[in-house]
Amino acid sequence: DPLVSSLQRYLGASISRRVGVQHALDNDYFNRMDALNYAIGHDDGQGGQDLEQADVVLVGVSRTSKTPTCIYLAHRGVRAANVPLVPTRPPPEKLFELKNTLVVGLTISPDRLIQIRRNRLLSLKEDRESTYIDIEAVREETVKARRLYERQGWPVIDVTRRSVEETAAAVMNLLHGGHGQVEVLG
């Protein structure tokens, strides 16, 4: 193929003529599948007894894209778990005992969060009012989350205007750049 040959010359790379090589079942593939199984088994605070096996734990209030970000990270071979911050119950103690695992707080503007939660309720055909979409309750929920992140010294990513891919890229940067107090604004 002239295009592939041109790319080969331009990049100085050799090409393989083996069909299906991009789907090889190598170590990377098995690491990604392991990471995906881990993410699924540690979604929304499940499997909390072995959070220390995660590369990263995402923490945030409901609807901050924790689950899709973990799945995206898993496809990159990152073992990611997520823990929801629920107003009526404290986070698991195990979360505060992690030493070698990156914990990242996800935050979002209250207005955007209410919009997302309203859409979620509409998709579930749920129309009654609740604290889930009450502006004061949501503001309090997001402020409490921010205070927790600050107390713990966890890096924070604002997902208000970020796609899942952008959030995952920010997490990957944190994983490769250290675990210091970092604020990644969206």
Can you tell me about this structure?
- The chain is α/β, with parallel strands linked by helices.
- The protein has a single domain, classed as 3-Layer(aba) Sandwich (Rossmann fold), CATH 3.40.50.
- Helices cover 45% and strands 12% of the residues.
- The chain has a five-stranded parallel sheet, with helices on both faces.
- Helix 2 runs antiparallel to helix 3 (66-74), helix 3 crosses helix 7 and helix 5 packs across helix 6 (135-152).
- The longest helix is centred in the C-terminal third of the chain and has 18 residues, at 135-152.
- It is elongated.
- The model has no long low-confidence stretch (mean pLDDT 90).
Task: Label this structure with key terms.
single chain; 186 residues; alpha/beta; Rossmann fold; five-stranded parallel beta sheet
Percent helix range: 40-55%
Assembly type of the chains comes to single chain
As residue ranges, the low-confidence spans are none
Intertermini distance: 42 Å
Short description, anyone?
The chain is an alpha/beta fold and 186 residues long.
Furnish the topology, listing elements before pairings.
Layout: H1 2-11, H2 27-41, E1 56-61, H3 66-74, E2 80-85, H4 93-96, E3 102-107, H5 110-123, H6 135-152, E4 156-158, H7 164-177, E5 183-184
Parallel strand pairs: 1-2, 1-3, 3-4, 4-5
Helix pairs in contact: 2-3, 3-7, 5-6
